[in-house]
Amino acid sequence: RLDADAVDYLQGSLRMLCGLYGVLHPLDLIKPYRLEMGSKLKVGAHADLYARWGDAIRDSLHAELAARQPAFVLNVASEEYSKVAKMRELDARVLTARFNAATVHMKQGRGELTRFCATHKVEDIEQLKAFTGTSGNWAFSELKGNDIIFDRVANNPLPKAPKAAQKKPAASEAPKAARKKPAASSTAAQAKKAKK
């Protein structure tokens, strides 16, 4: 569980992009919903949610960046959500976190990196290189342009079963009881036997 300082850090630094509400702070109250930014949903005169939000999300982020002037913005959003923020148009260096792993692990990586930023009060890029995830499954790979890349690494892999346990018995070695034809045990067979 995050302590009060970590929550304050996130409230001041983290912005979540939402197809229904736009830009959200962590402690904003919202109603439960299910709507992905990439949904093919017509909204009024707008062909989709990207058109619905237009420049509003980018402008909201612009205003905050102008007031705070951070050294960089860490983007942990998927491509689907990054697109609506128009990251390339922001007046700040945008550093995008990339995770070399399957999609399910990439999602976990984004969440774990966000938590890492909160618990370590990250203010500069060098601090991000120490990120290893909550179970030590991530390792910094490289800083390539405006991408910070992490690789998923095996941590405490499961031990292989001993060879003896993997060997299947030959048919001739199987117990005699196992080779016998099983007796019929259906209800119909039992009823027929009872009539005789």
Helices and strands: which structural class?
alpha/beta
Residues in β-strands, percent = 5-15%
Strand order of the largest sheet: 3-4-6-5
Helix content: 25-40%
* SSE succession: HEEHHEHEHHEEHHH
How many strands?
6
Q: What is the oligomeric state here?
A: single chain
Instruction: Note the main sheet.
Output: 4 strands, mixed
Q: Number of helix segments?
A: 9
Mean pLDDT: 85
Shape: globular
Distance between the termini: 71 Å
Q: Indicate the radius of gyration in whole angstroms.
A: 28 Å
Q: Which residues sit in consecutive blocks of at least 5 with pLDDT less than 50?
A: 177-196
Task: Tell me what the structure shows.
The relative contact order is 0.10. The chain is 38% helix and 15% strand. It has helices spanning 4-13, 49-53, 56-68, 79-85, 103-120, 125-128, 163-166, 176-179, 187-195, and strands at 16-18, 22-24, 73-75, 94-100, 138-144, 147-152. The chain has nine helices and six strands. The strands form two sheets. A four-stranded mixed sheet has the order 3-4-6-5. The longest helix has 18 residues, at 103-120. A hairpin with a 2-residue loop joins strand 5 (138-144) and strand 6 (147-152). The model is unreliable at 177-196 (pLDDT under 50). With 196 residues, the chain is of the alpha/beta class.
